[in-house]
Amino acid sequence: MTESRRTGKLLRALSRRVVAAQEAERKRLALELHDSITQHLCAILFRFQAVALRLPGRDGPLKTEVMRLHQMLGRTADDVERISRDLRPGVLDHLGLMQVVRVTCTEFADRTRVRVKRACRLPGDGCPRH
Length: 130
Description:
The protein has about 130 residues and is mainly alpha-helical. The chain contains four helices and no strands. Helix 1 runs antiparallel to helix 2 (about 60-85). It is elongated and about 80 Å long.
């Protein structure tokens, strides 16, 4: 084997290891966001709701502000959950890359109202174009 082939083989192996390490870190971070931060945000959200229900008056300024904070916190929890999912979709391990691409395209199109056209070709895969 020539030196350049050996070097190329080593570079490809190193590249695979770097990608694997990045995927492992994304998975760890996504799980931590989901299992820790999202859980804390949801607990705070429920406490806010309990406080709002105890406030006197139907439409007082304090109750209105608490409800606005409640809504903001709910959106923040949704954003953290989305970021966690975008970092490393849990379904990737269960359903595979093609299903994740399909779901991600659909979610993106729904969220942005931008039409998405997917095309996939894998070696030996008779994947239809969509």
